[in-house]
Amino acid sequence: MKRFEVVQYATDAELAQAATELWLKRVAEDRCRHGGHHVALSGGRIARNLFAAILHTTRAAPTELDTVHFFWADERCVPPDDPESNFGVAKTLLLDPLGIPQPRVHRIQGESPPDQAAAQASRNLAARVPVGPNGVPILD
Question: What does the angle CA 42 – CA 48 – CA 53 come to, to the nearest 5 degrees?
Fold first, then answer.
């Protein structure tokens, strides 16, 4: 049985920095183990802090992110240039500043009808992400 540790942070910035350090460590491990990493980003208040922490940390100590593929856990039904777009926030605060090439960015098409966007995102995920024994794609 897995044991979990509950850790509390005094500020959102401390939480974002801790999450960044854990994630970058995992990216490096996955790069060595199976050559790639697949992450799902989300939106919300903490995302901006997380993206800033990732950007700051990778600029201070360059990290190899060239095997990371970026997916989305959720998206609003808006175009990518809408201020409410989770993809738009990530693109502006993380992906563009890090120079992540478009072929490794797999956004949900929020401007499309929701059923179509969900179906396309599912196909995209299934085509690029390893599948577990139950047939469900596994993100790192």
Answer: 105
